[in-house]
Each structure stands twice: as structure tokens, then as C-alpha cells.
Design brief:
Blueprint lengths: L7 E3 L4 E5 L4 H4 L5 E7 L5 E5 L1 E2 L5 E5 L1 H5 L9 E10 L5 E12 L14 H13 L5 H4 L2 E2 L2 E2 L5 H21 L18 E3 L2 E2 L1
Parallel strand pairs: 1-8
Antiparallel strand pairs: 2-6, 3-4, 3-7, 5-6, 7-8, 9-10, 11-12
């Protein structure tokens, strides 16, 4: 099922979208409802119930107050896990999809400094700080997919660093900050043959 939102949502915005089920029999069945469950690393939690529109679509809306509560500090982005479930007329539940979404801070409501790094760069910096042994408490407690960076094994950190670096490189290319082409340097060590069997 294609999701109606991307990899990021903004705290403090009104979120609104509609969904249609691929199974048309379920789409029009009496008593069928959809529900989103969003959960974060701390107390962040949001349940969104669907309402049926006039053209038989499932509509979801989250108010500004609800979304702001998911990242109220205006600091680092917060990664949440989400789950989409279907409930039939007897309240039997079936999971339809799940994933993660990053909640970006509300810039308009922030009173202090704002970290302008993307969530990919912030995550990469946190991982590299832990690998290099210079991580702050905030960086050690940074969570990626529900896992504290500071609790990962060295092998897990290196694997995660490679994945995040690749994502960050793609981000730079997409933003026009990098061409994606590295500089090739050719080097020769020791004597070289110039021809006719003569070495210099």
C-alpha cells in the first residue's frame, strides 16, 4: 500500500490525508475503519482514527497541537515508528503496513538556536562521534529506528555509518552541493620503466 506521506513530517503542521484500500470489498464494507498508531522513543504517541468521506475514502487529520506534541522542543528531529491497521465491524485488527517517519521541529515556534543539519547529517555525525569516542550525552542517546546509538556494537556502528554516509552523499547531490564525482589521483611509487628496458 502506497503511503500518503513521505519520510518526514513537520511538528506543528496540520496533517491530513486520505486512503483507499486496494480490496474494494473491504473499502465499502460496513463497519470497517482504519487507524494509525505513531510511537516515539520517549512519551511521543499519537493515534489517528479514520472518518469515511462522501466518496467512500478513509480520511485522517491531526491537529497542530497533536503534531507539535511529537516534537515540542524545537531541537533535534524525532524518528517515530508508525503502524496502519484495519478494524472490521467486530473490532478484529489486521495490520496493513508499518514504517518510520522523521518529525522535523517547528521552526516558527522555536525560541532558541536551531540545528540546520538534515536528520541524515545529524544521525551520521552522532554515529561518527560515538565511533571516535568523542560523543556527548545527547549524541550517545540519539535514536535511529528506535535504537540508542551509544548502545550499538562497533560492527553495528560501522555498518550504520556506511549506510548514513551513502544517504548523505545522495542528499548532497540532490541539493546541488556535490556532483557525485570524486577526484581521481594517480600515484606511482618506486622506479618506473620509461621504455627500451630503461628504469629511472
Amino acid at each position: 500500500m502506497r503511503q500518503p506521506f513521505g519520510q518526514t513530517l513537520i511538528a506543528g503542521d496540520v496533517w491530513s490525508w486520505t486512503l483507499r484500500l486496494e480490496d474494494r470489498n473491504l473499502q465499502t464494507s460496513a463497519g470497517v475503519t482504519l487507524k494509525y498508531f505513531l510511537r516515539g522513543p520517549g512519551s511521543q504517541a499519537l493515534d489517528l482514527d479514520s472518518t469515511l468521506t462522501a466518496d467512500q475514502a478513509f480520511s485522517f487529520t491531526a491537529t497542530s497541537e497533536q503534531t507539535l506534541a511529537l516534537n515540542p522542543s524545537g531541537g533535534l528531529p524525532v524518528e517515530l515508528s508508525w503502524q496502519l491497521c484495519l478494524f472490521d465491524a467486530s473490532n478484529n485488527r489486521t495490520e496493513l503496513a508499518r514504517g518510520t517517519v522523521t518529525i522535523l521541529p517547528d521552526l516558527a515556534g522555536a525560541t532558541g538556536g536551531i540545528d540546520a543539519r538534515s536528520w541524515v547529517k545529524q544521525a551520521l555525525d552522532a554515529v561518527q562521534a560515538v565511533i571516535q569516542g568523542r560523543a556527548s550525552r545527547v549524541e550517545k542517546e540519539y535514536q535511529i529506528a528506535g535504537r540508542h546509538v551509544g548502545l550499538l556494537s562497533p560492527a553495528e556502528l560501522l555498518e550504520l555509518e556506511g549506510d548514513l554516509q551513502a544517504k548523505y552523499d545522495r542528499e548532497l547531490i540532490a541539493n546541488g552541493q556535490s556532483s557525485g564525482r570524486g577526484t581521481q589521483i594517480q600515484a606511482a611509487f618506486g622506479p618506473r620503466q620509461t621504455g627500451a628496458g630503461v628504469w629511472k
